[in-house]
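[audit] Reproducing an earlier prediction to check determinism. Same input, same settings, fresh worker. If the tokens differ from the archived copy the diff job will pick it up downstream; this log only records the rerun itself.
[audit] input (936 residues):
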Amino acid sequence: MKSLFTLVLSGWVLLLPAQNNTSFVNPMIGTDGHGHTFPGATLPYGMVQLSPDTRIDGSWDGCSGYHYSDSVIYGFSHTHLNGTGCSDYGDIMLMPTMGDVSFDPKVYGSPFSHTTEKASAGYYEVRLEKHQIQVRFTASTRVGFHEYTFTQAGLANLILDLNHRDKLLYGEIRVVNNRTLEVLRRSEAWAKDQWVFARIEFDTPMSIARVEANRSQQNDFYTGTELKISLQKSVNAGDKIKVKVTLSPTSYEGARLNSSEITGWDFNQVQKNAEKAWEAELSKIQISTANSDQKTVFYTALYHTMMQPNIAQDLDGSYRGRDNRIHKAEGFTYYSVFSLWDTFRAAHPLYTLIDKKRTADYINTFIKQYEQGGRLPVWELASNETDCMIGYHAVSVIADAMAKGIHGFDYQKAFEASKHSAMLDHLGLEAYKKQGFIAMDDEHESVSKTLEYAYDDWCIAQMAKILGKSDDYQYFMKRAQAWKNVFDPNTGFMRPKKNGGWDKSFDPREINNNFTEGNSWQYSFFVPQDITGMIEAYGGNSKFEAKLDEMFNSESKTTGREQVDVTGLIGQYAHGNEPSHHMAYLYNFIGKPEKTKEKVHYILNTFYKNSPDGLIGNEDCGQMSAWYVLSALGMYAVTPGIPEWTQTQPLFSSATIQMEDGSRVTLTPETPKSRLGITTVPTNTQANFVTAPKIVPVPVIEAAHKAFKDQMQVTITAQHLSHKIFYLVTVKGADYSRVKRTFVPYVAPFTIDATSTVSAYVMEGTQTSQTIFASFFKKPNTYAIAINSTYNPQYHAGGPEGLLDGIHGTTNWRKGDWQGCQAQDFEAVVDLKETKSISTCKTFCLQDTRSWIVMPTQVAYYSSLDGVNFTLLGTLTHTVDPQDYENSIHDFALQLPKPIKARYLKVKAINFGKLPEWHIGAGGDAFIFVDEIEIN
């Protein structure tokens, strides 16, 4: 019986059916543009995502496997990612065809039309036009249910292609009987070692038509890294073949157990069950609006937030851990697919409101991944840590849950895991702990990492406070202020530092390797843990308001690298990517709620639409939609970890939220929402919590260059004139064993004339800053260089002289030590200033194929006495495979048979050219990266 609610009107009592929220879900939203969603059948947080694949080339807009602009379906696979910016999944692909069997996707693929597509919550339908096969899909949590209706008589084929989309490391197909297959697929893409077991069951006997296996082919057991099978059956027009595909991350036995989710072959009943499952979840929030498009956008957004994280355990609790061993979840459900850099901002705060039990399950999963993998997840996928994106934002999810009084996980263990992740020495953390910030010299994306680590450290401090750990609280609250060390009060921006000082070529609009998918505008407001301090740093409320206004009113154009993620620009605000998502709410903190409302409602009404291109950027595993859900309700978590919602005017006249304890809360524009769904958590009163002292920002060491010829002046400054600076100069090779060395007060700029390291710190009263260091190198020669090619401004290595400074870049080219030119050969002429005897020449080049940086095909050296007439000395090739995806450095060293006399040396490196078909950027132009030229 349908659920009913009562309406009393003029004495009449009417019984009306309750709102069917699933009818307002449009899975096509986000499948066009850069949304990267998929339209197929799945259940809330389900293991199976059964959906069509129209992209098999690994292209960026095909990350989900489907793009609305396509017209060919290559098959239907059972795992898909919702809105990510990296491609993976597409496991266990089946494709129905008729007639002769081909394993070529271009042959077995079929045209389709959007006019025959139907997609709803838990259901997908399409007609394959090549053979007029009608396809319907639905699913349970772990089982995908297929129904194929053949409108023509003949031989029907079902192709299982395990080489679909990503690299097959190893596959198995076991023919159990003529109705059952068992399959193992180990693959490599974004996740380097993904395991999927499957049980495929047919409602009718099938025969093997063809097998392709490059290893074992015997006794109905096939293995290999090339593995495909086609099953066949003679059909009449109108005949149906139904298939159930059950997944397991652990074993064939797990798949067999999981197959019990669907016991019969009643497709319509399974579809109804899927719809009920979605209705139960979507009914947690009931909105009231007469605008049907708004309803569709809202409930599709809520639907997108519930497509992940995904259940990653069998029915008996067995799961594959981060150690690649099989474990059993006791008392919680184990999940996978944690896009934490995105989802800590809005998706996980939303879950604390409507899904407290799952929030605890997520954190229990984090703890197990720490125990079995050595640290908390960063971007976990299928029990693999991809290390995509930055920060250790699992701590934000944990702190937010603890602050809001959510239980069901071990607080002490969660704190242990969080502290451990923060105390590692990788990804710039060693420098961050030592000097209070990350410089370009230490790690790429240095500004973003400094800012996000600082917020995460604040989260750990909040956990410590709840648990009564005073020393840890003090320590992490100091680290949480690291943002002050990359804030430049003179420009009003967060800026990259290099060798102790500000990087000199600074444009706040420039997208480069100092920021993560953004620029300085999009990161200069990321201090959610200390908004009051940030406002003070900008000069108070009025100046902060002016800065926000300037950001929103600037030209909607960025400079530097083209970043496809940075979309939805309002000035320099970029709603299509996550770093901007809290910014409109910052007006609330300076008493300007009307400006928050204006910006939030503009975004709600402009960047979210009921159409395939209805998302302004990647869905990013529910984050883009979670922003909409919370903002439409009139609330947002600007600082996850503070048990409070920031409020604004809601989009709807009313909304009712079903709480997990059975209670309901109805929201109107006047309803206070700041403490909605939050249980007060008392701080451990037994601990002595002294307010953490404010840190003293580190000084800035400035000089003309990192390398110099004869001598160079060094200047040291502090953020405030009242700060006292102390410094120490250590000359390389000097003997200090008999000298007592101390830091001395800085009075004025000083000169160095030898390779030296300058150390400095600042004192404010009795407090000192952390000590910073800058290294300056006296060049090994006085050579000059002229670059005849044009290098990319982002990859300048300090200009032409950077190729002769004796400082070698590492394989982490994003730190800025390499000079890169694209779509051209590299050519430079070195002037030795006088005629010299030359015996060896070296040029160091780098390869990072994934980033379009490929070794030159050859390097040639020429000598000259006059700089006009050059003689070829020799040409060098190499054996570095362009398909080797490990970053590598190769020195093209020419050893001359006997020394020659020359004043000028020309180096010419021949560009690799267009990227070939096997590359994700096929057809694009390769880079050459050069760092150092050495002549002896």
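[audit] rerun output stored. Observation attached for the diff report: The first strand starts at residue 4 and ends at 9.
[audit] end
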